[in-house]
Amino acid sequence: MTTSTSIDRPDRPERSTGDAAGRSADHATGSAPAAPDAERPISLTATGGIDRASHHRLDEAWLAAAWSHPTTRVFVVSGGQALIEDKEDGTTELVMMPSFDAPFTEAHRYFLGTDEDGVRYFALQKDTLPGRMDDIARPAGLREAGVLLSDRDSELMTHAIGLENWQRTHRFCSRCGERTAIAAAGHVRRCSACGAEHYPRTDPAVIMLVTDEQDRALLGRQVHWPEGRFSTLAGFVEPGESLEAAVRREVAEEAGVAVGPVAYVGSQPWPFPSSLMLGFMARATRPDIQVDGDEIEEARWFSRDDLRAAIESGEVLPPSGISIAARLVERWYGRPLPQPRHHG
Length: 344
Description:
Number of helices: 7
Oligomer: single chain
Order of helices and strands: HHEEEEEEEHHEEEEEEHEEEHH
Shape: globular
Radius of gyration: 22 Å
Distance between the termini: 36 Å
Structural class: alpha+beta
Strand content: 25-35%
Number of strands: 16
Helix content: 10-25%
């Protein structure tokens, strides 16, 4: 599984342990160290000052009081979207409201946490987003909103969309087949028939930038992607499999390339619908390419000059958006990826 994804956040947090892991990955796989400009943060991972306060999820009295508090803020999610609003100062915000202005729902009310000022945040899952008389707000999915919102709003929306996706697809007990009920402020579903408790599903997936002894990068293109779209290889971790083994298996299956050293770089929540992307740098031991033809239609080795020229000419469309894919490529490339040149 390849990904057609990337990220571009204007802000830069203080260096974290993830940056140290990335430098270790460069050393372990023999890649050139990333330049500072290439160490941009991975989208959807910045801490926005939200404490999930999970110890309150089973306290119905506390949740009721929190919901009724005048400072509590609520937003609606529906079909992976929420309302966002572009402000005059150039920022973009989630459209939130006090709880007493929120659409009515009791079952699909999800407690997301509190901020440093004690404000409580809830998300409501509805079949449709509420209308806005001012026509300023617009619906947006996380792929668009994730690069526009503040760290706080991005963190809240990622949490809410992940819960919504899980809630919509796990309404029945996997043990006995009976309908389940929402509990723990949206973080558990309980079966009254057999007593089973079900928790939000997260599917681990590895995503890797593979380099060869010439320090070229391996990029692939899925069969259903637009012509010219290339990105890193990726795939789900199988039962009983280590992350490193998954990296080697996926690369071999999709591109026929044998991989040796594997080093962890960082992770990214990816609620489309329920993945956790685990980023790696890897070194090929046998660079011969043989694509599977099912998922991957084409795979190529790119030098930095090759990739720059291909992107600038429009021959190659690089990873774009908010995924960790572009950050892995930029770590190898040494700087932000170039933009296509516009002719005419």
